[in-house]
């Protein structure tokens, strides 16, 4: 456990030798810190469970009174939102006077700097591990101390100035409405309404310009020459159909690559291949987890295309619509429609039912599976008769 200053520089570290986030380590670090401070110094401690530690210190005489009176507790900014609303009002650093923009997450940034020691010290002895962490923490402390001027300049430029400008802008906007005379408030509301209408008009103009540019681009592509059968089909329908076709190819490529990674893990677990080892196994799992959100996003986008195409299609258009894909990757792996391309050619006659009806395709697969089962039974019966003969 580490105690750092608000500039993320580590000061003291405590060796956690018991399970759980016990309060004794935080109290020991703070008590040791006060031995180096003047008797009138006040300390603000930002801790994930600072509310619990503060309550414990109020109930029990753990620290001397002179130290407890000069100690202010708050919760680190990221962890404060997981506490109850009443706790956030008292301990949230953004609602606590005197803490400024301190977020209290410097310890997390320190762990990020120390994480490279995990594979190195995994097989080390305890004394060696503690010595190495101590040396690395000292190097981090010296580097951050030497770079403190740059840290303060960056904090002022990107943290304070930008937020201050936005807050001042909001304050000016609010104060105009709050302190304006009664006869001006109505006029101010009219001005703000006109400004909103002007923004709406500008957005409409921009949208119209985009549509015209898309139509010009569509005309330059000579879609009607490349696809003469689309002569009576609307522009929006053709555009969505071509975009769905390209997106389906992208989805299939991503999904098949992800399924190969799954097979690599499954085969190693099943004994068909050599064990992957912890490092390769973790890398494969991380790669799967990293690509899964993007794959689900494009699948949802493709499903929206399918829904829009279904709404735009006219009965006289003999074009087979693409079917939506399941967002569950386990179901997608067994979905036969994943390997089917999006049809961008109109049918000469009515499309066959197996192409448009999912139940028909499932029935065909079930019928084929039943035939295979019957064949398997005949093979077993023939084998039994030959054995008896």
From TrEMBL:
One of the Pfam families matching this protein, by short name: KDZ
InterPro entries in the record: KDZ (IPR040521)
Superkingdom of the source species: Eukaryota
PANTHER family for this protein: CXC1-LIKE CYSTEINE CLUSTER ASSOCIATED WITH KDZ TRANSPOSASES DOMAIN-CONTAINING PROTEIN, CXC2 DOMAIN-CONTAINING PROTEIN
Name of protein: Uncharacterized protein
């Amino acid at each position: 456990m580490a105690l750092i200053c608000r500039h993320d520089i580590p000061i003291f570290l405590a060796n956690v030798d018991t399970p759980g986030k016990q309060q004794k380590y935080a109290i020991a670090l703070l008590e040791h810190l006060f031995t180096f401070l003047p008797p009138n110094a006040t300390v603000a401690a930002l801790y994930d469970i600072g509310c619990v530690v503060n309550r414990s210190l109020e109930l029990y005489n753990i620290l001397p009174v002179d130290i407890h009176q000069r100690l202010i507790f708050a919760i680190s900014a990221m962890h404060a939102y997981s506490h109850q609303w009443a706790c956030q009002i008292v301990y949230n650093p953004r609602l606590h006077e005197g803490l400024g923009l301190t977020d209290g997450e410097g310890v997390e940034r320190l762990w990020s700097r120390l994480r490279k020691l995990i594979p190195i010290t995994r097989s080390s002895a305890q004394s060696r591990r503690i010595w190495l962490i101590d040396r690395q923490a000292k190097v981090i402390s010296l580097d951050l101390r030497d770079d403190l001027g740059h840290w303060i300049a960056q904090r002022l430029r990107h943290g304070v100035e930008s937020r201050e400008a936005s807050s001042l802008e909001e304050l000016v906007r609010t104060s105009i409405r709050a302190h304006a005379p009664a006869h001006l408030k109505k006029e101010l509301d009219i001005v703000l309404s006109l400004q909103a209408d002007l923004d709406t008009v500008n957005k409409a103009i921009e949208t119209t310009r985009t549509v015209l540019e898309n139509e010009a681009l569509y005309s330059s592509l000579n879609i009607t020459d490349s696809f003469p059968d689309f002569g009576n089909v609307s522009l929006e329908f053709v555009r969505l159909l071509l975009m769905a076709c390209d997106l389906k190819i992208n989805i299939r490529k991503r999904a098949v690559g992800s399924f190969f990674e799954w097979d690599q893990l499954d085969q190693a677990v099943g004994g068909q291949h050599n064990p992957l080892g912890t490092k390769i196994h973790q890398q494969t799992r991380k790669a799967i987890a990293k690509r899964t959100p993007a794959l689900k996003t494009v699948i949802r986008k493709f499903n929206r295309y399918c829904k829009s195409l279904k709404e735009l299609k006219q009965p006289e258009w003999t074009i087979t619509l693409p079917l939506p894909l399941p967002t569950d990757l386990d179901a997608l792996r067994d979905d036969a429609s994943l390997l089917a391309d999006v049809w961008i050619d109109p049918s000469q006659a009515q499309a066959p039912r197996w192409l448009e009806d999912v139940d028909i395709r499932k029935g065909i697969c079930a019928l084929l599976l039943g035939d295979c089962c019957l064949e398997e039974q005949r093979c077993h019966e023939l084998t039994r008769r030959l054995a008896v003969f």
